[in-house]
From TrEMBL:
It is found in: Plastid, Chloroplast. It comes from the Eukaryota. It catalyses: 2,5-diamino-6-hydroxy-4-(5-phosphoribosylamino)-pyrimidine + H2O = 2,5,6-triamino-4-hydroxypyrimidine + D-ribose 5-phosphate; 5-amino-6-(5-phospho-D-ribitylamino)uracil + NADP(+) = 5-amino-6-(5-phospho-D-ribosylamino)uracil + NADPH + H(+); 5-amino-6-(5-phospho-D-ribosylamino)uracil + H2O = 5,6-diaminouracil + D-ribose 5-phosphate. Signal peptide: none annotated. It holds the Pfam family dCMP_cyt_deam_1. Pathway: Cofactor biosynthesis; riboflavin biosynthesis; 5-amino-6-(D-ribitylamino)uracil from GTP: step 3/4. This is Riboflavin biosynthesis protein PYRR, chloroplastic. The keyword Oxidoreductase applies. GO terms for cellular component: chloroplast. InterPro entries: CMP_dCMP_dom (IPR002125), Cytidine_deaminase-like (IPR016193), DHFR-like_dom_sf (IPR024072), Eubact_RibD (IPR004794), NADAR (IPR012816), RibD_C (IPR011549), RibDG_C (IPR002734), Riboflavin_Biosynth_HTPR (IPR050765). Residues 29-151 form the CMP/dCMP-type deaminase domain. GO terms for biological process: carbohydrate derivative metabolic process; riboflavin biosynthetic process. SUPFAM superfamilies: Cytidine deaminase-like (SSF53927), Dihydrofolate reductase-like (SSF53597), YbiA-like (SSF143990).
């Protein structure tokens, strides 16, 4: 029998009539069905964009009919709640909104809550509270302050059917929850093996163990990950490409872990024309080879002690949510022993290869008795062509209950705790604290189509405008086409991908003065954003006295770098803008006192 490990193996059918509140069982069943539908929706962009917090929203009328629904497409795009109420139109008034997770894609942005309030939503059912502490509970409190009834699964009412629905909400945002709780990306170990537990023949030959259908599923797994990790032995023996091979959407970064850098000078992974490669190695290893890799555009990151835990903590700081491990048995065993593997996905092919020296998927873990074996939990099985897909968790998804007070709630309890007292404030991803400072935040700006132009247009984000400005004014049809592609890109992530790749592949399309004007372009766009949105300006002013640092560990121009070696121009520009606003306020105060 074919079994599915997906959250919902068939479309949900919601009843046309909602039972009365007196019939608690049916009432819970309907709430659970709509919450599961919201969870399913939230995964719609998997493989199309880089991993991000997954939000889905379903608007259901009092009669139980779906009036509208939506999901967050990518970081920095329109919230799921806003899309759903637009689709529902006038049917939103008095209806119930079902959210798989409490709103909060970008700190400082209230678009999702405002959309629900302005649409006249009467009740909101939330699957789970937001995992990130600086966002947790904020949207729920705000909704309740507007008189909207808010119910949270597992808190306001409980039942078996609701617990199952809540679990689906935990699963779709497992990467975000692990990021919040364990400070490492959510890591999945994937391998294909024969029925007798071999990942290759004794000779090392491994193409192919699994079927074409299974390999297609692997491409999907890659597309839903920030990065794919392999070890040096995999590079030497298999020379993989590690692409998603779907022709569109998100392609993960390739990561190679190699302590000695005993790697070939020519390899498919050194081709970074379409997707980047990062090599993680021991500090001081083969400096000449590091220079060779750098000349090919491969990024090399050195570690004092190269081990899976250190590498994962680094990529957590880099903002990665989800990592797919496609390594051999030695590195897999090290990663499991380090406690960084959360889930295992194994494709078992109905083949026997034998061989005493044939490698197995996991190397020595130091276990000598079967009672020491690691047991998977929430195990699922699915037949994929002739293969059997077995998946399960090595570590349970951390439970978000009981509620941990947010900084705001803590400040209300203990006024001496000031959330803004730090001398250095870091920001990076839009979902992190102070994420609205990012040029990727979901705040459209109205800027001219060229510095001397009177043709003002709305750009979906600062990043859209910044990337397009590279090509504005260049008398070349390809440059004009590039500007329009960037302007209409669905997310800041896609705008950046288009702009950066074109700049690298076709430098002749970039305006000749770009290096001289790019800082001013960014500053002008940032000033427009913070001037357009008063609440963002207030957040910026609240940081007075603190140093602002864009925490990207790899961008040494706009960011602060891994060890503070970056120029941090984005942080500098924000501090410059903050000083300008403070100066304007002082002048206004002086004029008022003289009036």
């Amino acid at each position: 029998m074919a079994l599915s490990f997906r959250l919902c193996s068939s479309p949900l059918i919601c009843r046309a009539t909602l039972a009365s509140n007196d019939n608690g069982r049916n009432h819970h069943a309907n709430d659970a069905a709509f919450i599961r539908r919201a969870a399913d929706l939230s995964e719609k962009s998997a493989g199309l964009t880089s991993p991000h917090p997954n939000f889905g929203c379903v608007i259901a009328t009092s009669s139980g009919k779906v009036a509208g629904e939506g999901y967050l497409y990518a970081q920095g795009t329109k919230p799921a709640e806003a899309i759903a109420v637009e689709a529902a139109g006038e049917f939103s008034r008095g209806s119930t909104a079902y959210l798989n997770m409490e709103p909060g894609d970008c700190h400082g942005d209230h678009t999702a809550v405002s959309a629900l309030v302005q649409a006249g939503i009467g009740r909101v059912v939330v699957g789970i509270r937001h995992p990130l502490q600086h966002l947790r509970g904020s949207a729920i409190r705000e909704l309740r302050s507007h008189g909207i009834e808010v119910n949270v699964l597992g808190e306001d009412f409980q039942s078996k059917v609701l617990e199952d629905a809540r679990k689906s909400c935990l699963l779709v945002n497992a990467p975000l929850i692990h990021r919040a709780c364990s400070r490492v990306p959510f890591s999945v170990l994937k391998y294909a093996m024969t029925l007798d537990g071999k990942i290759a023949a004794s000779s090392g030959h491994a193409a192919w163990i699994s079927s074409k259908l299974s390999r297609t599923r692997v491409f999907e797994l890659r597309g839903g990950s920030d990065a794919v990790i392999v070890g040096g032995n995999t590079v030497r023996q298999d020379d993989p490409r590690l692409t998603a091979r779907h022709g569109q959407g998100h392609t993960p970064t390739r990561i190679v872990m190699s302590q000695s850098l005993d790697l070939p000078e020519e390899a498919n992974l050194w081709d970074v024309s379409e997707v980047s490669t990062i090599v993680a190695t021991q500090r001081g290893a083969r400096k000449s080879f590091q220079k060779l890799l750098a000349s090919k555009g491969v990024e090399v990151v050195e570690f004092d002690m190269l081990n899976p835990r250190e590498v994962m903590e680094y990529f957590h700081l880099r903002g990665y949510l989800s990592i797919l491990w496609e390594c051999g048995g030695t590195l897999a065993a090290s990663a499991i022993s380090s406690g960084v593997i959360h889930k295992v996905v194994a494709f078992v092919a109905p083949k026997i290869i034998g061989g005493r020296q044939a490698p197995s998927p996991v190397g020595d873990l130091g276990m000598v008795e079967m009672t020491q074996a690691l047991n998977l939990i929430d195990v699922c099985y699915e037949q994929v062509g002739p293969d059997m897909l077995v998946s399960g968790f090595l570590q349970p998804i951390p439970d978000l209950l009981p509620v941990i007070p947010s900084e705001e709630a803590t400040f209300e309890i203990e006024p001496s705790v000031n959330p803004f007292e730090a001398s250095i404030i870091f920001f990076y991803k839009t979902w992190d604290l102070y994420g609205s400072f990012s040029n990727f935040s979901p705040h459209p700006v109205r800027m001219p189509y060229g510095e001397e132009s009177d043709d003002y247009r709305t750009w979906s984000s600062v990043e859209h405008y910044y990337q397009a400005s590279k090509f504005v004014g260049v008398e070349n049809p390809l440059a004009h086409d590039c500007v329009e592609r960037i302007r209409t890109a669905r997310s800041p992530e896609e705008a950046a991908l288009i702009g950066r790749s074109k700049q690298r592949q076709n430098p002749e399309l970039v305006r000749s003065d770009w290096e001289d004007v790019k800082i001013e372009v960014m500053y002008t766009a940032l000033k427009c954003k913070f001037s357009t949105y008063p609440h963002l300006k207030s957040i910026l002013l609240s940081t007075a006295g603190s140093v602002l640092v864009e925490a990207s560990p790899h961008d040494l121009f706009w960011g602060g770098g891994r060890e503070g070696e970056g120029l941090n121009y984005l942080g500098r520009l924000l501090m410059q803008l903050r000083s300008e606003y403070i100066g304007e306020s002082s002048v206004s105060a002086q004029n008022a006192s003289l009036a």
